[in-house]
Specification:
This protein has 10 helices and 12 strands. The chain is an alpha/beta fold. The chain has a single domain, classed as LigB-like (Protocatechuate 4,5-dioxygenase, Chain B, 3-Layer(aba) Sandwich). The strands form 2 sheets. Strands 2, 3, 4, 7, 8, 9, 10, 11 and 12 form a 9-stranded mixed β-sheet that branches. The protein has a 3-stranded mixed β-sheet with strand order 1-5-6. Helix 1 packs across helix 2 and helix 7 crosses helix 9. It starts with 7 loop residues before the first strand and ends with a strand.
């Protein structure tokens, strides 16, 4: 975290999960979007997305499939509520950062301070910079958002172990209108053989498509807690989930002995 007039959360996984240099990052994103599944003509802009968060060589095309759905509203969407799981620091509840911006190779992404204040008024939400310092599940989404949107502010939230109702309360407080989109960052099954992973992820994706949070177990998706909150919110609001793409690392850039699953889902 840098200090001074503006507190900036520095990029922690540039050069690992995605390229460090701006040009190499542009090239990686261009490749991801080229390998993405294009939306059909007239596809509606979703209210929420579910996207993976592995290295771009593994899950970039799946994430790009979801992010293409936001491109038609690039000048309309001004707030992104970005939820992802904790990988580095144990966490109960939800954590926002004290930073004014998150850095990427493309430049800083502004943190939505109004959204942060609304979030901090809720039980179970606190400022915890340690939870954000090394967390990749949120950081890897930022270059995609910088590519498909025109300077939207983002509220990154690390979601640890917490009741689904707490995540629903957060989403209700920040739901907004067409200017706001929710992004939930999660991978699916982890480190199973290819055929087993396909079967496990098929079951999980069916629960997501049916908006059944109770069908997503803690080991079905690393972002199970934010994902269940989104599904419960969407069901209560009468929305629908459209599964856009499901692959795993055995389909993209890895072997088939220990794979990680990825899904792209639009909710609206």
């Amino acid at each position: 975290m840098t200090g001074g007039a503006q507190r900036v959360r520095l990029a922690a996984v540039a050069g690992a999960f995605y390229p460090r240099s701006p040009q190499a990052l542009r090239d990686a994103l261009t490749a991801a979007f080229a390998d993405a599944k294009a939306p059909p003509p007239g596809a509606p802009v979703p209210k929420a997305l579910v996207v993976p968060h592995a290295g771009y060589v593994y899950s970039g095309a799946v994430a790009a499939t979801a992010y293409l759905r936001l491109a038609p509203a690039r000048d309309r969407i001004t707030r992104v509520v970005l939820l992802g799981p904790n990988h580095r620091v144990p966490l109960a509840g939800m954590a926002v950062s004290s930073a004014d911006a998150f850095a990427t190779p493309f430049g800083p992404v502004t943190v939505d301070d109004e959204a942060r204040r609304l979030a901090l008024a809720l039980p179970g939400v606190a400022v915890d910079d340690d939870a954000h310092a090394l967390e990749h599940s949120l950081e890897v989404q930022l270059p995609f958002l910088q590519t498909v949107l025109d300077g939207a502010a983002v509220l990154p939230v690390v979601v640890g172990q917490c009741p689904t109702a707490d995540v629903v309360a957060l989403l209700d407080a920040l739901w907004g209108g067409p200017e706001t989109v929710v992004v939930v960052s999660t991978d699916l099954s982890h480190y199973h053989r290819y055929a087993d992973a396909v079967a496990l992820d098929r079951r999980t994706v069916a629960a997501v498509a049916a908006l059944e949070p109770e069908g997503v177990g803690d080991h079905d998706a690393c972002g199970a807690y934010p994902l269940r909150g989104l599904l419960a919110t969407a069901r209560r609001r009468g929305l629908a989930a459209d599964v856009l793409d499901v692959r795993n690392s055995g389909d993209t850039a890895g072997d088939r002995e220990r794979v990680v699953g990825y899904g792209a889902v639009a909710v609206g």
